[in-house]
């Protein structure tokens, strides 16, 4: 029997206990041992909860309990999760987490600390919720040269963009509805400003390069400037709008960013709607494969945490390898990428825009009060240079290659 502890009995922590209770047989089959929750750390009490008696308010009782071999950190935020994780690893306990903020900030140090103490630090649930994308990269795709990963990594923003497209609604109205439905946080800035997706693509980029991508160095744009008009114009262009995290290996280094893109409707990522996530991975032999599923939610995310628990139990006494190291991954200078760009104009600046970007075309849209212009493929730095001298551009976005 392997005893585990859960740090933080909120949505994901509650889900971990639920998955372990509900799927006990499957967890045993996967881990090769029975797994049971022994302690749960939370500031609150949970009268009437089946795990009520296991709740403690003192992390020390978990740290000092030699029976507890695995700690599931589902607290979120950097502190105190960082200190608790370090102490657990130093005490010879493996840790698995859904905490993307902590992994993006201190992942290499914690992976190294786990190695030093012959335990594991795993973070499957930190990217793509229940989608087993990290294990796929570390396992099935390990012999591939992965040169590109692009994905819809945030469910809240994908829900907002989907609703804006389907209902022609304004960003603020849809955000309000998403908050009422519990899809968006009361403070939605991490989602709508792209920071959540940024941490996730930084983790994916780190694994892809077997190094470390500092999320603070990843150019990040959110979706707050997107209007219902942009979605109508995107449709006229044969595309939709998606907030993408993308990283691509180039000769100059890793080109990585988070930004809203025009995604052609025939691209597999265009059909990902609502709160779902999807991650497209390009390998040199495999070509493109795509992974789709619930990027958030209690049981889906907890399922990924429990998968890590099973991996740790199966490998007891060993460190499960993780390809994140403290070697800084070389990033390509922003601006070198060649792609097409979309511009929205209300009409007054149309002629000037069309003549400034040689090879650009206007896309007619009967249902719109604005016009879309698509440029020919060009370097981003040249695009921004020309853009800075133009009036009449209401919004612009990058276009994803088909
Ligand atoms: N707020 C995140 C999302 C939850 O909307 O995808 C999972 O990180």
Structure, explained:
By secondary structure, the protein is an alpha/beta fold. The chain folds into 3 domains: 2-129 and 298-314, NAD(P)-binding Rossmann-like Domain (Rossmann fold); 142-294, Dihydrodipicolinate Reductase, domain 2, CATH 3.30.360.10; 335-399, 2-Layer Sandwich (Alpha-Beta Plaits). The protein contains 14 helices and 17 strands. It has helices at 11-22, 24-31, 59-63, 81-90, 100-116, 133-138, 155-167, 171-180, 189-192, 195-209, 228-236, 298-314, 350-356, 380-387, and strands at residues 2-7, 35-41, 55-56, 68-73, 94-97, 121-122, 146-152, 239-250, 253-264, 276-283, 287-294, 338-339, 341-345, 361-363, 371-374, 378-379, 393-399. The strands form 3 sheets. A 9-stranded mixed sheet has the order 11-10-7-8-9-17-13-15-14, sandwiched between helices. A 6-stranded parallel sheet has the order 3-2-1-4-5-6, sandwiched between helices. The chain has a two-stranded antiparallel sheet with strand order 12-16. The longest helix is centred in the N-terminal third of the chain and has 17 residues, at 100-116. 47% of the residues are buried. The structure holds L-homoserine.
